[in-house]
Amino acid sequence: MGIKKVKPTTPGRRQATFDDFSDITAKTPLKSLLAPRKQKAGRNSQGKITIRHRGGGAKRRLRIIDFKQDKFDIPGIIKTIEYDPNRGARIALVCYNDGEKRYMIAVDGLKVKDQIVSSQNKIEIKTGNRMSAKYIPAGVEVSNVEMKPGKGGQIARGAGNVIYVMATEDKYSQIKMPSGEIRLIPKDCLATIGKVSNPDKRLVKLGKAGRKRYLGIRPTVRGSAMNPVDHPHGGGEGNQPIGLKAPKTPWGKKAMGVKTRKSRPSDKLIIKRRKNKKRK
What we know:
Blueprint: E1 3-5, H1 11-15, E2 17-19, E3 34-35, E4 62-63, E5 76-82, E6 91-96, E7 101-105, E8 115-116, E9 130-132, E10 141-143, E11 163-169, E12 172-176, E13 182-186, E14 190-193, H2 209-214, E15 270-272
Antiparallel strand pairs: 1-2, 3-4, 5-6, 5-8, 6-7, 9-14, 10-11, 10-14, 11-12, 12-13, 13-15
């Protein structure tokens, strides 16, 4: 992938940058691996808004992605590298020797006609191959990593994400997450060799509000611009400070810097927490 600029014919296009899609080899997805995507606009089954600032956006269909890659010891050939409107990473169409076709998260450096294989045993350390964490040497880049054996990849699936295998001891493998967190996973969890494709995704600048709307994200209004009835920060004549001991959400709970992570059983496997970035 490359980033391209265009002539600054309008204020929006002056700041905008675009993906040149140079790594895409097919424009039309495989119909048998498509599924409908229902627009929910941030609402739950009761019709109540549970996620604000959602709605509209371009109509698109879901690609059925194989996160498990559980066709073990059956080689597959990469047929195409495709764009997926539902994620930043590219997807690859894999045709296995038995004739079945599946989509997978493409790994950076993977090309058409490359051969990959997934196995629970020790195989070659090669970009695109998938194996248990216990067979992966320390320092190797991996992605689409499982947290429970057989559940399918759950972490490092976004564009450019990468996890480093640190060591394997006893029942667990030690990995370094994209956030800097160091944690343990069962050593039988599968991981794909290589980092996720399309690392330049972070360099794309939307440039104008309309491109944000294409993604299904609606405008966000500041609390201090609202009335007191609508937000704890609201009210006042002109520009006013928050006027509270601490910033709050629209529902009166403390915001900005408050820990929101819930205690989970897997927390005991965290060796080192990620470092919180300071707000500018």
